Amino acid sequence: xxxxxxxxxxxxxxxxxxxxxxxxxxxxxxxxxxxxxxxxxxxxxxxxxxxxxxxxxxxxxxxxxxxxxxxxxxxxxxxxxxxxxxxxxxxxxxxxxxxxxxxxxxxxxxxxxxxxxxxxxxxxxxxxxxxxxxxxxxxxxxxxxxxxxxxxxxxxxxxxxxxxxxxxxxxxxxxxxxxxxxxxxxxxxxxxxxxxxxxxxxxxxxxxxxxxxxxxxxxxxxxxxxxxxxxxxxxxxxxxxxxxxxxxxx
Length: 250
Prior knowledge:
This protein is of the alpha+beta class. The protein is built from seven helices and six strands; from the N terminus they run ββαββααβαβααα. The strands form three sheets. The chain has a two-stranded antiparallel ribbon with strand order 1-2. Strands 3-4 form a two-stranded antiparallel ribbon.
């Protein structure tokens, strides 16, 4: 039986393929199993705790870290070395304030770190508790451009080099959102079993933008938990190339 997988739950370790939801002929996320009494599992509201995941293995962890370091150094030297001075000029000409916006986010094991972004908003008291919305008046002119093409996230390669983040992983949510959804979504904190990423499975599957209701956040969490359960170097490579393809198509 040919495996057909929409990555939102449990799947066999081998022969996995990422399939866009709109490419399926059914409207529900499903997993076809190679063996066992059940052939199809609907896991829209069925997310179990993660007991073990591949990145608990020391060799897998070292391999992923080595790739992160090499890629981060290459990107910082080849891109950020000239992009940061350019963005600094544009951001300073557009509005008063610092070039970078440092915001506390949760990383692996729920510990806090300073997530680095190009500043895309004017200074405001709600920056750490109120996510940006559509047509948000706090966003600057250059900030709208940065956010549209996700350029404001690029300084996070520095976070990767520092060891707080990985290139691929669940996106780090605001601390206020983590506190809010931890009590509303089952096993929400399982996202913090690995390092957060600059891009992730949820993003390449189309779960981006505002999370203004619990259903949108549940879908992202399902993607994140699938990624953690089934991590492999090949899955990271697939997510990276899908991210590049989406970025270049903008």
